[in-house]
Amino acid sequence: MILRLVERTVVLLVSLAVSSVLVFAFLAVLPGDPARVALGVNASEDAVAELRRQFGLDRPLTTQYVDWLGGLLQGDFGISYISKAEIGPQIADRFQVTAWLVVTAMVIALLVAAPAGTVMAARHRKLSGLALSALSQVGVAVPAFLAGILLIMVFAVKLGWLPANGWTPPAEDPVMFMKQLALPALSLGLVQGAVLTRYVRSAVLDVLREDYLRTARAKGLRPFPALWRHGLRNAAVPVVTVLGLQLATLLIGAVVVERVFVIPGLGSLLLDGVSSRDLLMVQDVVMVLVVAVLVVNFLVDLLYVALDPRLRVSR
Question: Which residue ranges does UniProt annotate as crossing the membrane (predicted)?
Answer without folding.
Answer: 9-30, 99-122, 134-161, 181-200, 235-257, 285-307
